[in-house]
Amino acid sequence: MTGRRRFLLGLGALAGVGAGASQAQSGYDRQILAADTDAAIENASLREWAAAKGLVYGAATQEYMLSSNPQFASSFVRECAMLVPEDELKWKSLRPSPNRFDFTRSDRLAQFAKTHNLLFRGHTLLWHARLPSWFKSTVNHRNARQIMLEHITKVAGHYAGQMHSWDVVNEAVFPEDGRSDSLRITPWLRFLGSDYLDIAFRAAFAADPQALLVYNDYGMEYDTPKDEAKRTAVLKLLERLRSQGTPVQALGIQAHLWGGETRFNPSQLRAFLKDVASLGLKILITELDVTDKHLPSDIHLRDRLVAGVYQDYLSVVLDEPAVIAVITWGLSDRYTWLSQKQARRDGGAVRPLPLDANMRRKEAWKAIARAFKQATPL
Ligand code: XIL
Fold it and tell me: Taken in order 313, 315, 319, 324, is the CA torsion positive or negative?
């Protein structure tokens, strides 16, 4: 029986996390026992395991994390082949006022990437969130197009030739807003209409024709009506953009996953990835992490359940040849947005990422390394 099949059987046992902790434990233990024979897994880093299969592993981080914590910085360089600024390339960080661009912190990250031979990736040229305080009172129907084009041209132009890829547009699909095209009602849509995505991608392509241009979004992971509606709407948007020649070249799947969520359907996800690939698009997993707020407080068990979610998800997505990169939204539990966003009721520190707060490799790290090791080479 294949490792993955045995694992999924084990996962079945995970179903009633709350009710069947011991059941869950046994399921994952079987998996661990098998893995432990592979002690060599720790002889290489995540970037090396990924590279061995033609894949890229990277993580999001912030400038202060690298400049203030040398141990973190060295762990980052050891494990990652790609760096994504977590906040420094968003409008709120780059645009202190309508006529000013401040690249100070993003340039430091670009320099760190260059110094340590890391790929650099941009997030994000256009989003409805993290907009500067002046935006609401300044941007309107008359000037929105000019302000958007100036921003994309200036920012993508500033890093032209240095970027592996850009999230040109982030989170533009939101079926809950009730539109027939399932687009989210954002300031960009209100001021420019549904063509704003095409305008943005063409401007990014003109400013940096070398970067892989990505449409990035969340909520496409689970076997739920909400995620199914999102997958259908995102696919429809990508088909429309491709059919009108918009230079969108890849889909970014954020993959903010949930520990304890059992509505995961591998064949459904495989089919979606295949549909995206059939449009000639590449796929990047762009913001992978596992929220553990619903998992038991026992750290040993919680870490193994979180690792199971990584293994389960990656064992599906890495089978799709169009998937070229896996990026976690952070590297160490010391620095994760989930500490605020998805804090645990028991007040315990969250543990969603590959390294613990002291930069030690966790079960999650082993699960990601093993998934790369088992992946089909590109
Ligand atoms: C988050 C950052 O991690 C936080 O530091 C910030 O306060 C808010 O944004 N989807 C995205 C990311 O595309 O940019 C978000 O990052 C997380 C959700």
Answer: positive
C-beta neighbour count of 333 within 10 angstroms: 25
What does 270-321 look like in DSSP terms, one character per residue? HHHHHHHHTTT-EEEEEEEEEE-TTS-S-HHHHHHHHHHHHHHHHHHHTTST
Condensed to tens digits (0 to 9), the pLDDT of residues 88-144 reads 999 999 999 999 999 999 999 999 999 999 999 999 999 999 999 999 999 999 999
Burial label for 197, CB within 10 Å (0-12, 13-18, 19+), is buried
Atom of ligand 1 nearest to the CA of 337: 3
Pocket test for ligand 1, best of 287, 328, 335, 340 (most atoms within 8 A of CB): 287
pLDDT in tens, 322-331: 999 999 999 9
Tell me how far the alpha carbon of residue 156 lies from the centroid of ligand 1, in angstroms.
Answer: 20
C-alpha 33/C-alpha 21 separation (Å) is 18
Which pLDDT score, from 0 to 100, does residue 2 have? 45
The alpha carbon of 358 is separated from its chain's Cα centroid by a whole number of angstroms, namely: 23
Helix (H, G, I), strand (E, B) or coil at 339: helix
Contacts of 299 (CB under 8 A, 6+ apart): 348, 351
Query: Tokens 């790929």 identify what position?
Result: 119
Determine the Cα–Cα distance for residues 269 and 236; give it in Å rounded to an integer.
Answer: 16
Residues whose CB falls within 8 Å of the CB of residue 252, separated by 6 or more in sequence, listed in order: 167, 214, 215, 216, 217, 283, 284, 286
- Catalytic sites, residue numbers: 171, 287
For residue 170 and ligand 1, the question of a CB distance below 6 A is answered with: yes
pTM: 0.92
pLDDT tens, 209-235?
999 999 999 999 999 999 999 999 999
